[in-house]
Write a structure and sequence with these properties.
Largest sheet: 11 strands, mixed
Keywords: Hydrolase, Membrane, Transmembrane, Transmembrane helix, Zymogen
Distance between the termini: 47 Å
Oligomer: single chain
Number of strands: 29
Number of helices: 29
Strand content: 15-25%
InterPro entries: Ntn_hydrolases_N, Pen/GL7ACA/AHL_acylase, Penicillin_amidase_A-knob, Penicillin_amidase_dom1, Penicillin_amidase_N_B-knob, S45
Helix content: 25-40%
Organism: Myceligenerans salitolerans
Protein name: Penicillin acylase family protein
Family: Belongs to the peptidase S45 family.
């Protein structure tokens, strides 16, 4: 169950009579909040009439004479369709959720964490940094929202307010503010953060295993999977040399920009930069030699003996565990940050398409909820000019103006999470209200916050920060979690007898520094060529995303954006590449700057005629320390590459239908690796063998109608359980994603690997085949219990279902009558984790239900933009009583898409409703 779903527990504990009123008369109550989508309405502040045309799916296309009118109208439309979602989000991002939902432990914990991060304060600073035009657009958008909500009661804005109003006192919503929009960018960045789970897990795994080689096995090198990076060896090697160029703050980023068709600019070789305060060392550090990485042990480097002692210390384990528990309280808005979160995108050159122009596909894999994350929209200036430059359509977020992913008349762009390492945990030594820096104890920064609780007593909160960022480990513990024990990390240089203090964990994250991502969104919307994309990318600070693009004049390309920290290479006691927590008292481990935008990887028109970006490593060699160490292991991206290459080699040109078919590909790399080995296991009992026989002729696709797919998923779940749960803390039990496939891949040829042994069986040492046998037998029994004794009755879709839940009123703890009204009907689906059709599930949960998946699918045909296609997981509306609440769900589940009109003629041809907004 996701963190956001957990947050819903207790929010809607209402009396039976109110429940009956909401559900029995649900349509009447719900329809009260439905907006008028045809006719005329006056909107204060408009300079001229604005037309809002909606098609059969209710998707709005907005036409205006002025840019400010365009965004004022978008704010009005967003408030029409999804105001409660917007209001809920702004309460979350401001750390004010308890003000909305009342005295709820999960909400209060969430507020504590968000206040500690200070998302709202950062957003306030970002408004001042934004360009004058962006500020103007944000204010116009806010004016449009406020024009809609001004004369409406809460019950006229969303049925959710009616339910919440039964238990808490609700006032009319506050006016929308531009900062509310900018704060949403922090939630988006948080959910799309990088490797912080892996960073914590390395330390926690070591505290249990106390064996660096075993920890290294759990985090294999990207290259061990054998999958290609985004930029190929030939492309990445074609830059215009490897000479050094100045980096930031004394950090020598090297290399120059690539020039010419097919060339890729990269940063060249690793930096020689110095650490802060002149304490870094040149040419040495944790990268080590050869392919084994730092300290000669494992891809990320094992900690030194001194750090070994610290990680085995109970005090640090407690601080790390408290940190993980605290971060789990942050409500999940668009993605969980777990292994199931990812995305697919690719572009194909016109030389390989039926139309002779490029095609682009994108399907971001995020948390799936009701309503879906995306809001489809078209934003069109009646006459495109410098003063009104918008003619774009695509996917955006309610609460934020513009289009985040989509196309305009000249260029299409898609986004996938790059996974760059933009967060670091620092182990701090805290004593009272001071913390250790070198030989000194310096004062912690402190500020006081008060959390208002609707119907309850206010909660006072003291937020403490170091130079790196806020202390996370003690946020949920009034006694200031950590440990009195400081056995070992580094011997104190202070005078004998001085207290060493307690362990605490701080978080440094690029998104906690104000940036200009808002400017980037509007720059993408008005981009015309590759140079415009590069300039937009330079503004796109967080979250770090892969950008693929294609232009109507025939180019395809890739650009990496993001504010990427530079870490000095330090010889120990811990790896300094960001893959392990870092000692906060040693300034050599501080960030030394950020990678310059001109040094970020890029490519245009590569020789092979396509680019695939699906969360895999960006560059050959794992992209070095400056981007990340922890990537998706590339099984999805490699499958996409295989399908593209096979079709190109066959001579058959690509159509839009071919691109959609790839998005729905269900072939399993797990099956490709494991089935040959599973078929070698001898099962003597016919009953046990029933499932195994299904695997013999199976095509390795996770089709919802497949019995073999259901059985194989159960085998994989049991294999992970039997292999790892005896050795790892529960927080690290395998979810079953790409990393665990890479781990098992590395173990299969080692039949006596220590992980095969079940530590719970005394005086017995299990081998690989014994564990595989156990997994096969257990899976057969599981299928009998879950589905039927007869394998002919099994199907993957019976186990693997998408059960969408409303973000606030759809989860456990909410009365069933309310859940039934708010949640769409479950859908059996194909696909699975690390499959191109990435309907992920969590193998540690005991359930096969979908936890994340393609939040939308789009294919853009640059030869004929009106021939493009799109679909979202639910629909445009956030009102359960609306026909457009989930009218795209069945098509999404079946792998279908809808026509995506763009030109005025195409939009008008499918218009079913027209609303005119008048000054």
């Amino acid at each position: 169950m996701s963190r956001l779903r957990k947050l819903a527990i207790g929010i809607a504990v209402v009396v039976v009579l109110v429940l009956a009123a909401v559900t029995t008369f649900g349509w009447a109550v719900g329809r009260r909040a439905l907006p008028a989508t045809s006719g005329e309405v006056q909107v204060e502040g408009l300079a001229a009439d604005v037309r809002v045309l909606r098609d059969e799916q209710g998707v709005p296309h907005i036409y205006a004479d002025e840019a400010t009118d365009l965004f004022r109208a978008q704010g009005y439309v967003h408030a029409q369709d999804r105001f409660f979602e917007m209001d809920f989000r702004r309460h979350v991002t401001a750390g004010r959720l308890a003000e909305l939902v009342g005295e709820n432990e999960s909400a209060i914990s969430a507020d504590k964490l968000i206040r500690t991060f200070g998302w709202r304060q950062v957003a306030e600073q970002e408004l001042d940094l934004a360009s004058p035009r962006t500020q103007e657009y944000l204010r116009a958008y806010a004016d449009g929202v406020n024009a809609y909500i001004a004369d409406r009661s809460p019950s006229e804005l969303g049925v959710e307010y009616t339910v919440l109003g039964a238990t808490v006192e609700l006032e009319n919503p506050e006016p929308w503010d531009p900062v509310d929009s900018l704060a949403w960018l922090k939630a988006m960045a948080w959910d799309l953060r990088s490797n912080y789970n892996d960073e914590l897990d390395r330390a926690l795994a070591y505290s249990t295993l106390e064996d660096p080689s075993q920890v290294a096995q759990l985090f294999p090198d990207y290259g061990t999977a054998g999958n290609r990076p985004i930029l190929t060896e030939s492309a990445a090697g074609s830059g215009a040399g490897s000479g050094e160029s100045a980096g930031t703050e004394g950090t020598g980023e090297t290399g120059t920009e690539g020039t010419g068709t097919g060339e890729t600019g990269t940063e060249g070789t690793a930096a020689e930069g110095t650490g802060t305060e002149g304490t870094g060392t040149e040419g040495t550090g944790t990268e080590g030699t050869g392919t084994d990485g730092a300290e000669g042990s494992g891809s990320q480097g094992a900690p030194s003996a001194t750090f070994d002692g610290a990680l085995a210390d109970k005090g640090l384990r407690e601080a790390l565990t408290a940190t993980r528990d605290a971060l789990a309280a942050v409500p999940e808005q668009i993605a969980s940050g777990d292994e199931g979160t990812g995305s697919n995108s690719w572009v194909v050159s016109g030389q390989y398409t039926e139309t002779g122009q490029p095609m682009l596909a994108n399907d971001p894999h995020l948390s799936l909820q009701a309503p879906g994350i995306w809001h489809q929209v078209g934003l069109h200036c009646n006459t495109v000019s410098d003063s009104c430059p918008f003619d774009t359509a695509g996917f955006g977020f309610s609460g934020f103006p513009g289009v985040v992913i989509g196309h305009n008349a000249d260029i299409a762009w898609g986004l996938t999470n790059m996974g760059a390492d933009v967060t670091d945990f620092f182990i701090e030594r805290v004593r009272g209200d001071t913390y250790k820096r070198g030989d000194q104890w310096v004062d912690l920064e402190q500020r006081e916050e008060t959390i208002r609780v609707n119907g309850g007593s206010p909660v006072d909160l003291t937020i403490r920060s170091t130079v790196h960022g806020p202390l996370i480990s003690d946020v949920l513990d009034d006694d200031k979690a950590g440990a009195a024990s400081m056995d070992a990390l580094v011997h104190s240089p202070t005078a004998e007898g001085t207290e060493l203090g307690d362990y605490a964990i701080s978080l440094q994250w690029t998104a906690l520094e104000p940036g200009r991502t808002a400017d980037a969104v509007f720059a993408f919307d008005t981009a015309r060529n590759a140079e415009d994309i590069r300039q937009a990318a330079a503004l796109f600070d967080v979250p770090a995303q892969n950008i693929v693009y294609a232009t109507t004049d025939g180019h395809i390309g890739y650009q990496a954006p993001g504010r990427i920290p530079v870490r000095a290479q330090v010889p120990g006691p811990v790896s300094s590449d960001g893959s392990w927590p870092r000692p906060g008292w040693d300034a050599r481990y501080d960030w030394t700057g950020y990678v310059k935008p001109e040094n970020m990887p890029r490519a245009q028109d590569p020789g092979e005629g396509f680019i695939v970006a699906a969360n895999q490593a960006v560059l050959p060699g794992g992209s070095g320390p400056y981007l990340a160490r922890d990537w998706d292991y590339g099984f999805r991206s490699q499958r996409i590459r295989t399908l593209l290459t096979e079709q190109i080699d066959s001579g058959r040109l690509f159509s839009a239908e071919d691109m959609s078919a790839i998005q729905n590909d269900d072939w399993s790399p797990f099956a490709d690796l494991l089935v040959p080995v599973l078929l070698e296991i001898e099962l003597e009992d016919d009953y046990d063998s029933d499932g195994q026989r299904l695997l013999r002729d199976w095509d390795h696709t996770m089709d919802k109608d497949s019995a073999a797919a259901a059985y194989f998923a159960a085998v994989w779940q049991n294999l992970l359980r039997a292999t790892f749960q005896d050795e790892l803390p529960e927080s690290m039990w395998p979810e079953g994603g790409d990393r665990w496939l890479a781990v098992v891949q590395g173990m299969l040829d080692d039949e006596n690997n220590a992980f095969w042994d079940d530590k719970t069986t005394v005086s017995v040492r299990e081998s690989r085949d014994e564990i595989l046998t156990q997994a096969l037998k257990s899976a057969r029994q599981d299928m009998t219990v879950e589905l039927s004794k007869d394998p002919g009755d099994w199907s993957w879709g019976m186990l693997h279902q998408l059960e969408l839940e409303h973000a606030a009123l759809g989860g456990e703890g909410v009365p069933s009558l309310v859940r039934a009204y708010m949640n769409p009907a479950p859908q059996p689906v194909s696909g699975g984790t690390s499959i191109v059709n990435a309907t992920s599930w969590d193998a540690s949960s005991g359930s096969f239900n979908v936890t994340a998946g393609p939040s939308m699918r789009m294919v853009v045909d640059l030869a004929d933009l009106d021939a493009s296609t799109w679909v979202t997981v639910t629909g445009v509306s956030g009102h359960p009583a609306s026909n457009h609440y989930d009218d795209q769900l069945e098509e999404w589940a079946g792998g279908e898409t809808f026509a995506w009109p763009f030109s005025r003629e195409a939009v008008e041809a499918v218009t079913e409703e027209e609303l005119t907004l008048r000054p």
